[in-house]
DNA sequence: TTGTAGGCGTTATCAC
DNA sequence: GTGATAACGCCTACAA
C-alpha cells in the first residue's frame, strides 16, 4: 500500500527549532513580530526538513486553496480544441508566477458543466473559475453569480456585471469585411457559428456592419450558421458556391470553419486566394500549414489565458469584478488565402459548371 | 435553499436530521450499520441542503484528495503541443467516471519539473502523478520512486520498475521502414528526436532494425536528431535532400517534424508522395489537413490518457505498480504523403539542381 | 517577543 | 445503532 511517507508537519519544524508551532506559523506568514534570531533558526529548520504547509489544513483555516478551476468541454470525437490548449498554457504560465495551481475538469453538456462547477464549489476545491466559450445566456455564469463565487469569463454574455476578458469580435469582423472590400470583393459570404454562442452573434453583427458601411445590400442567402467543425464549414462553402450568384469571398467565424471551407473549395478545383478568398478567425498555428496558408484574425489564446488568470487572482483577492473588464482587439494575420477577385460571381459560377 | 454565503457543513445536515454528525458521516461513507429510517432521514437532509463534504477537511482526516496531478512542459513559443491536449482530454474523461479531478501545472525545464512535483507532493495537493514524455533517465521518476509516491508514466525509462503505459515505438518504426521498403524505397532518411528522450531512442532502434532487415546498409548521414518543432523538421529535410545521394523517403519521429519537412520540401518544388515520401508519427488531427494529408502512425493520445489515468487510480488504491505495465501497438494511418519513388536519388538530386 | 489553546470540517474510536 | 469526542495540520486570538 503506497502511503504518504512521513510528511513533515509544522510540529516537526517547531520541535527542531525549539519553539512553539504558533511561532513557526507566524514566521512563515510574515507577521514580522519575531526576533531575527528565532526567525533564522526557524527558517533553517524549515529548509532542513523541506517543510511545506499542507494545502488542506491551510484551506481549512484560511478558506483558500490557491487553486483555480476550469471546466472544459469534453473533447468531441477525439479532436481536442487547439484554441483551448493554448489558452490553458497561458493560464498555467500566469499561475506559475503566483504559486497557484489549476484544476481541470471536463463536461459533456451545458447542464453537466453547471453540475461540475457546483460540485467544485461545494467541495471547496477551487477559489474561483475561469469560464470559456461563453454563451449569450450562460447557465454557468448564472450559477456563479447566484453563488457569489469568484470567476472571470473569457467572452461576455447578455448580462455583463462580472469580470470578463473579451475580444472585440464585432470590430474584428468589421475589419474583415473592410479588408475584402478593399481587395475589390462585393459579394461576401459569412460562415457563422451556433446562434447561442455570444461571440457568433457579435461577429455576425460586425459582418453586417461592414456590409452596410460599404453600401452592399445584405443577402440572407450568404449567411450560414455552422457547427464549429471542419465538416460543417465544408458543407456551408459548397452551398454558397453553388448559389446562382456565388460569393467571391468567405468570412468565417473560426479558423476551423475556414479550413473546412478551403478543403471543400479546393476539391471543387477552385484556387483559394484567387477564385475565392477565405478569411478565418483565431490565428491557430494550424492555419499556417494548410495550403494556402490561411489569412486570419489572431487574438492570442495564450495571452488571453494568462490575462484571465491574473484577473481572476485579483478578483479572488478582493478587487471589484467590475474593475476587471477588458476588451482587446484582434489583429489581421495576412497570409495567402485572400486576394483580389480574379473572377466575377458569374464567371465563378461558369467555371464550376464545366 | 442554498445560501450564497457560509457553505453547508456536516453539522448542518446533522442538525436538520436530528442526529449526531458522526452518524451522518457513517451514512455517507456507507458503513451500513445505520437503521434504514435514520438513513433515509439523513439522505433527505443531505439532498435538501445540497450538502457536499469539504475536500480539505476530508483530506485532513483520510489522507486522500481525489485529485491526480500532471506537470506539463510549458508551451514553447505559443504553440501548445496537440498530443498533450488530446492526452489531457483522455485523462479528464477517465476521471469523470471516478469523481476525481486533475491538477495541471507546467514547468519550463527539467529541474523545474522536479521542483513542481516535489511541491505538489509536499503540499499534498494530489494523490498521484501522470508523467509524460519520459526520458531515458528521468529525474522526475527518480524523485517519485524515492518518495514512494504513486505515479504512472506514459513511456518507459531505463529503469522500468514502476507502472507505465507505452507504445511499442521500436515496432512502429520497424513497420514504417518495412512499409517504405515495400513501396520500393532503398534510400531512407530518419528525422529523429532529442537523444535524451526515450521514445526517440526506441524509434531510432526500430528504424535501424528495419534497414538491417531489408539488407540496407546504415548511413549515419541519413540520420538527424531534431528538436520537436516544425522548424527543426524543415531544416533537417533540407539538409538531407541536398546530400549527394538524397533519400527518397523520410521517416519522422513525430508528425510535427514531418509537417515541417513537408513544408520545406514543397517549397523546393518537390512533390510529396511522388518525389519524396514522408511518414510521420502521432496521428495528429492536423495531419489530415495538410497538403498532402500525412501518412502517419497513430497511437491515440486520447486512449493513452484515459488508460494511464485509470492505471494511476488503481495504483493509488493499492494495486502493485508492476501489475500495471502495458505495451500497445501503433497502427499505420495511410493517407497521401507516401508512394513509390518516381525518381532515383540521382534524378532527385538533378531535379533540385535546376 | 513568544507560548497556549481553540477551532476550521471530517472521519474514526470509543462508549452507551 | 447512535452519540460524544479526539484527532488531522494549520492559523490566530489571547495570555504571558
TrEMBL record, chains A, B:
It comes from the Bacteria. Residues 333-354 are annotated as: Disordered. GO terms for molecular function: DNA-binding transcription factor activity; transcription cis-regulatory region binding. SMART domains: HTH_LACI. Keywords: DNA-binding, Transcription, Transcription regulation. Residues 8-62 form the HTH lacI-type domain. PANTHER family: HTH-TYPE TRANSCRIPTIONAL REGULATOR GALS, LACI-RELATED TRANSCRIPTIONAL REPRESSOR. This is LacI family DNA-binding transcriptional regulator. It comes from Stappia sediminis.
Amino acid at each position: 500500500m503506497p502511503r504518504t511517507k512521513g510528511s513533515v508537519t509544522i510540529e516537526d519544524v517547531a520541535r527542531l527549532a525549539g519553539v512553539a508551532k504558533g511561532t513557526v506559523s507566524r514566521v512563515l506568514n510574515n507577521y514580522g513580530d519575531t526576533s531575527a534570531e528565532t526567525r533564522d533558526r526557524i527558517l533553517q529548520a524549515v529548509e532542513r526538513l523541506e517543510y511545506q504547509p499542507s494545502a488542506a489544513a491551510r484551506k481549512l483555516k484560511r478558506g483558500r486553496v490557491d487553486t483555480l478551476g476550469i471546466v472544459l468541454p469534453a473533447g468531441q470525437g477525439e479532436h481536442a480544441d487547439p484554441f483551448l490548449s493554448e489558452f490553458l498554457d497561458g493560464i498555467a504560465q500566469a499561475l506559475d508566477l503566483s504559486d497557484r495551481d489549476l484544476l481541470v475538469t471536463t463536461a459533456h453538456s451545458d447542464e453537466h458543466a453547471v453540475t461540475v462547477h457546483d460540485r467544485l464549489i461545494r467541495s471547496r476545491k477551487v477559489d474561483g473559475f475561469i469560464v470559456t466559450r461563453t454563451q449569450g445566456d450562460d447557465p454557468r455564469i448564472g450559477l456563479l453569480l447566484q453563488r457569489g463565487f469568484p470567476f472571470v469569463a473569457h467572452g461576455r454574455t447578455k448580462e455583463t456585471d462580472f469580470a470578463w476578458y473579451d475580444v472585440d469580435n464585432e470590430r474584428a469582423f468589421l475589419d474583415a469585411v473592410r479588408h475584402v472590400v478593399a481587395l475589390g470583393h462585393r459579394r461576401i459570404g459569412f460562415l457563422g457559428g451556433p446562434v447561442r454562442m455570444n461571440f457568433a452573434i457579435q461577429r455576425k453583427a460586425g459582418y453586417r456592419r461592414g456590409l452596410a458601411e460599404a453600401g452592399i445590400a445584405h443577402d440572407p442567402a450568404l449567411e450560414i450558421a455552422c457547427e464549429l467543425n471542419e465538416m460543417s464549414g465544408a458543407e456551408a462553402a459548397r452551398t454558397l458556391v453553388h448559389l446562382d450568384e456565388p460569393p467571391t469571398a468567405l468570412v468565417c467565424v473560426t479558423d476551423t470553419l475556414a479550413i473546412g471551407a478551403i478543403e471543400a473549395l479546393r476539391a471543387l478545383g477552385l484556387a483559394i486566394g484567387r477564385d475565392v478568398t477565405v478569411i478565418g478567425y483565431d490565428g491557430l498555428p494550424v492555419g499556417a500549414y494548410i495550403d494556402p496558408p490561411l489569412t486570419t484574425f489572431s487574438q492570442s489564446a495564450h495571452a488571453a489565458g494568462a490575462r484571465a488568470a491574473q484577473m481572476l487572482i485579483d478578483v479572488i483577492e478582493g478587487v471589484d469584478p467590475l474593475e476587471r473588464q477588458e476588451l482587446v482587439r484582434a489583429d489581421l494575420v495576412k497570409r495567402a488565402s485572400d486576394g483580389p477577385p480574379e473572377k466575377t460571381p458569374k464567371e465563378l459560377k461558369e467555371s464550376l459548371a464545366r
